[in-house]
Every structure is written in structure tokens, then in C-alpha cells.
Amino acid sequence: MDGDSSDSSLSDDDSLSELLDAESHNPKSLKATCKDHLDLLIDYIRKTYSVIRHCLSLHLESKEITYDLLWALFKLGALVYTTCPSTCKP
């Protein structure tokens, strides 16, 4: 890594702390900035995952799911149990 990237991160940290220091006296301005950033994040997530959301909603309507979309139905680390339709074994 070169020195330019670390200088850039320092300036980003400095500008963030300046922003927080300047806006700490004006909570409404800080809330507005936070809301703007949150809105930007939500818009990004909606655009990025719109295809997956559409595909998932079609599967949910038909009450079927594919293995590649199981992550959307269960919490991370959840155990899923099912039986084989033909043998009724786990």
C-alpha cells in the first residue's frame, strides 16, 4: 500500500470528526445528515437486490423455493430440518 491511501483515510476520519464536532451543537442538522445517509443506503439496497426480491416474491406466491434463495427465509445459522418425500426419512 502506498502512503496516499492512508493519507486519504486520515482526511476522511478528520472530516468525519469535524462534521460530528460541528453538528454536535445542532442535533437537527446531525439527524438530517444521518437520515440522508440512511435513505441513500436503503435506495442502494433496493436497487441492488431488486431482482432477488422479485424472484423471491414469485417463489413465495407459489409456495416454492430454490436452494439458492433459502438464505432469504432463514436466519443465519438456523438449523433446517426436512424429510425425504419418498422415504419419509430425515
Summarize the biggest pleated sheet.
none
Structural class: mainly alpha
Which percent band covers the strand fraction?
Answer: under 5%
Give the SSE order as H and E letters: HHH
Q: State the helical fraction.
A: 55-70%
Shape: elongated
Number of helices: 3
Number of domains: 2
What's the Cα radius of gyration? Answer: 23 Å
Tell me the number of strands. Answer: 0
Structure keywords:
61% helix, elongated, 2 domains, 90 residues, mainly alpha
Task: Walk me through what this model shows.
The protein has 90 residues and is mainly alpha-helical. The protein folds into two domains: 1-48; 49-90, no CATH class. The chain has three helices and no strands. The termini are far apart.
List the helices and strands and how they pair.
Elements: H1 3-23, H2 27-48, H3 50-61
Describe the structure in brief:
This protein has three helices and no strands. The protein has 90 residues and is mainly alpha-helical.
